[in-house]
């Protein structure tokens, strides 16, 4: 598998802090909305079956794009490619742990995301919230960048359309997938069961 892309990020970037902007999410039922995916289908998130993980990220850079210092200075902004690759490289572990689907989500266009999916060899689909329907329905925190609203880095675990776990802020981004896997292990150790792909706890 090719690794001809940058999966690193500066060690001195500012660390994001929890501002409480996602405190309302645990236990929320996802509204019945559909988003375009990189396989040219439309995904109705609220109807997804079983345990689903969605990692929301601000934006991935284009090939050859120079990342400005202004972007690096935004806490939690940098690191979308390393985050996506962390889920790519642990895909099998997620399936073994009982996760039915993994999706990435950003406010970038599907056409842009399709290039990213191909370039990074991602085995899961990316969802485009270009119209900000998901962001606004869930009141997700955002970043204003060059006239566009981008979602902050958030990871959601859902069962039958209900949010059962939220990771926010997510840092470092290249450890995002492992954070979710660690939670799955803790749930199993604590005796929480995803019986019939239905999680019995909300945290």
Automatic annotation (TrEMBL):
GO terms for cellular component: cytoplasm. Residues 26-181 form the Redoxin domain. GO terms for biological process: cell redox homeostasis; cellular response to oxidative stress. It comes from the Eukaryota. GO terms for molecular function: thioredoxin peroxidase activity. This is Redoxin domain-containing protein. It holds the Pfam family Redoxin. Belongs to the peroxiredoxin family. Prx5 subfamily. Keywords: Antioxidant, Disulfide bond, Oxidoreductase, Peroxidase, Redox-active center. InterPro entries: Peroxiredoxin_BCP/PrxQ, Redoxin, Thioredoxin-like_sf.
